[in-house]
Amino acid sequence: MGKCEMNLAWRTFAQQGINVAGGLGSLAFSGPEARGVLPCTAPDVVNSQRNADMNWQVYIILCSDDSLYTGITTDVERRFAQHLAGTGAKYFRGRSPLRLVYWEGGHDRRSASRREIHIKQLSKVSKLGLIASNDNHLEKLSDH
Questions:
Q1: 61 and 129 inside one domain
Q2: pLDDT (tens digit per residue) in 82-117
Q3: Pairwise CA distance, residues 84 & 125, whole Å
């Protein structure tokens, strides 16, 4: 069994909660779905999965009390509508979202979360600078 087959099989069985007794080298699988080793995933399938993982976005919303709310999502238009409807973050229970003022895409879940934390730690003045900077790709959002 090649390395690619072993890694893919290990992940697949682990995700399904299947015990891999003795590791993959012994091929001693146990569990109801253990059927053997899966073939290596084709590169185009792996790349499309990576592209799907890179669909996370970081956004900033200007609120009715002049505060700036920062969040992450895979669909900023849907998420903004949720905030408007009162079904988004609890932050909007005491204030209303006015408009999206900052957007950046191309993140995976982990990098979007890290970026969100970084932005939330900035002062309001620094956030306003970020909104005015070239890092703001809000105009590109309409291209999606």
A1: yes
A2: 999 999 899 999 899 999 999 999 999 999 999 999
A3: 25
